[in-house]
Design brief:
Number of strands: 14
Distance between the termini: 37 Å
Strand order of the largest sheet: 8-7-6-9-10-11-14
Order of helices and strands: EHEHEHEEHHEHEEHEHEHEEEEHH
CATH superfamily of the largest domain: NAD(P)-binding Rossmann-like Domain
CATH architecture of the largest domain: 3-Layer(aba) Sandwich
Largest sheet: 7 strands, parallel
CATH topology of the largest domain: Rossmann fold
Radius of gyration: 22 Å
CATH class of the largest domain: Alpha Beta
Shape: elongated
Helix content: 25-40%
Number of helices: 11
Strand content: 15-25%
């Protein structure tokens, strides 16, 4: 039986990984092919290893790829993949777990920055609006010890967030589709479980995938159930939180804080442009989606993705297979 054809559509895959894949497949790189050669090759491709979704994989070109069987994402999420255009026989795998430790660290940096008002204090000192003092009021900083931390999405990132949280001696509430069976974590599922986590948590970290079920899962009603001085941290996708509802909630609840490393989509792509002037609010912290790229710098995401493709090439069932029905939306959403 001939070896399958594998097309890598990014330059982030290292030579060692390419050599490992070449033992089981004929490996091609889209960046090394001209347009004509690439067009001729596409119908024979069995496996795609992608980072961002490449522009040359148009609906027309995808329709010609009748031999395609596996798409492996190097990104953790897969909402950038056009599921509606894929044949039902194509298996799509996320890269869940590949960025967990690094993104969890960043989630805690955002939570601590919001809880301790690091940005506010820095700006106050910078602008001569603060003098040295030996006492603080009760609302100037939040002490997290023995507080309740809600984690929405208890996958690789969520569990890594919890592992760090145990060192801070916080009570951990985990919300996920499946029960969390882990010492020191209270498990919640379903709509009622979500409401309980939001209502009873002093801080909430969002680490859910973006699907048609989780889009705007944090809306005006959900925000209203949260404590007036709660902290909400989003290190997953901007679209999980309703942008306008959040802005109005932050304006009317100055003790509520939101810190995020992710932003909302504009024309199918994440953008730093917002509908509302969030940076005019002192209870908003935003950073330019660097948590994921910090993980990419370790090389782990590529190794995780390549290892999963190797499983497939060896005849084993790959990990992190996603359900296309959860992602069948009209417009795919780029990272």
């Amino acid at each position: 039986m001939s070896r399958p054809n594998l097309l890598i559509t990014t330059d982030v895959v290292d030579p060692g990984s390419i050599r490992a894949l070449s033992k089981y497949a004929r490996v091609f790189s889209s960046t090394a092919l001209d347009e004509a050669s690439l067009s001729q090759l596409l119908p024979s491709i069995n496996i795609l290893l992608v980072f961002f979704w490449p522009s040359f994989l148009t609906p027309e070109n995808l329709s010609r790829m009748s031999n395609l069987r596996l798409i492996q994402s190097i990104l953790a999420g897969v909402n950038h993949i056009p599921f509606a255009q894929l044949d039902k026989n194509v298996v799509v795998c996320s890269n869940a777990g590949a960025y967990s430790d690094e993104v969890a660290e960043y989630a805690w940096s955002l939570l601590l920055s919001a809880a301790k008002r690091i940005v506010d204090f820095h700006n106050a000192v910078k602008t001569d609006q603060w003098t040295l003092r030996r006492t603080l009021g009760g609302k100037e900083v939040t002490i997290l010890e023995e507080k309740t931390l809600g984690i929405l999405g208890y996958g690789g990132i969520g569990s890594a967030v919890a592992r760090i949280g145990k060192g801070f001696n916080v009570k951990i509430y985990g919300f996920s589709r499946k029960p969390v069976r882990e010492n020191g974590v209270r498990s919640f599922q379903g709509d009622k479980g979500l409401l309980r986590v939001l209502a009873q948590s002093d801080a909430v970290i969002v680490s859910l995938p973006l699907t048609k079920f989780t889009n705007k899962i944090i809306n005006a009603d959900k925000l209203a159930t949260m404590r007036k001085d709660a902290i909400l941290v989003n290190i997953a996708r901007g679209e999980l939180v309703d942008e306008t509802a959040l802005y109005e909630h932050l304006k009317t609840n100055p003790d509520f804080r939101y810190a995020a490393d992710v932003w909302w989509y504009r024309e199918g792509r994440e953008s730093l442009k917002t509908l509302h002037p969030f940076f005019e609010l002192s209870n908003f912290i935003g950073t330019p989606h660097v948590s994921g790229p910090s993980g990419l710098a370790t090389g782990k995401p590529v190794k995780f993705a390549v290892a999963n493709v190797l499983r497939f090439l060896r005849g084993l069932k790959p990990k992190n297979i996603v359900d296309p029905a959860e992602y069948l939306v009209t417009d795919r959403q780029e990272y």
